[in-house]
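#help-structures

NK: newbie question. if I give both the sequence and a SMILES, will the prediction place the ligand too? trying with pyridoxal-5'-phosphate
OV: yes, paste both and it writes out the complex. here, I ran yours:
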Amino acid sequence: MAIRLSEKVATLKPSGIRKFFDIAATMKDVISLGIGEPDFSTPEPVIQAGIEALRRGETHYTSNHGLLVLRQAVSDHLKRLYDVEYYAESEIIVTVGVSEALYLVFAAMLDPGDEVIIPTPCFVSYQAEVALAGGVPIEVPTFAENNFVPRIEDLEAAITPKTCAIFIGSPSNPTGAVYPREFLVKLADLVRERDLMVISDEIYDRLVYGTEHVCFPSLPGMQERTVLMGGFSKAYAMTGWRIGYAAGPKEIISGMVRVHQYSIMSAPTVSQYAALNALIVGEPFVQEMLREYDRRRKLVVSGLNSIGLKTFEPKGAFYAFPDLRSTGLSDEEFCNRLLKDEFVAIVPGNSFGDAGTGFARVSYATSYEKIEEALVRIDRFVKRIG
Ligand SMILES: Cc1ncc(COP(=O)(O)O)c(C=O)c1O
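OV: that's the protein plus ligand as structure tokens.
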């Protein structure tokens, strides 16, 4: 029997992160600085809210859009933090994480051949989701010299008559870059001039260190041009609950709801109630986790730099992105050998697009003590190969 996969799926590369972690999972005593998820448990009152929802019998589908109380809480949250106003009834959808929001937005917006400009290195799903929706991802490289903030002229040069949107992810996975206001204001001018949409993945918005997070739709005239994505996975340590949201112009949200209603129906009800409580009582927990991430961030950045792996200071998320080129090894080789020889897992930069080649993603979403030990091992490894 001829088993057939669609061309779109057959040509889809498996995620470089997964490939690497499948190897690490077979080994003992590995310190993983590879994983993109908080090591903290979900705050206790949030877990309780989920349990209470189940006990109350909240075990049914919700509205396709998500619970109205949750959408209203998201709307209030965005107003309080960024002074943007979204109608809970029509401009917000609750999704199965930002992952689903990515799938929905491209399914709703793209026709075959439409192009989406994506600065790289970037989160592994962006290009794949564009391609699965029949679109064409156009990668625009960013560079360590500019702290991995795109150059406006590079974005402009990538625009063609087929460009539908520019995608941004700030704070960035994998680099930890936070796009400064001056850059975003220039980007706003560009999209206004060229009549484009922006899709803005702001899942790490709460994880910034000594700098501001600028919510892109809060810039003048940008709310009508932006689909904003946010989530609970990172700030509230809720990856396994699979819950997030998108906010944007009602026409696009309504298109996303149509795709969502046929593919998902509604985000998990128990997670919606837990997320609601995260917005109500979660702030002190966010602040506590943030303080700990910041302590680890300083350790990682100074540790890697003193080992001789040049690392720019990440201002957001929970990743550092050291430059490995001084070692003479490729990023793949470095990470493979570090794993094999010293049992430390980090992710080769090329997993996040060609622009990540020569770098690696080091996650500090793991304990301070483990990071200290990993740095000793990395130091030993670099001395040995040097
Ligand atoms: C930049 C970025 N966007 C989206 C996601 C997906 O998050 P969620 O758990 O909300 O699906 C991740 C997860 O690692 C991420 O790093």
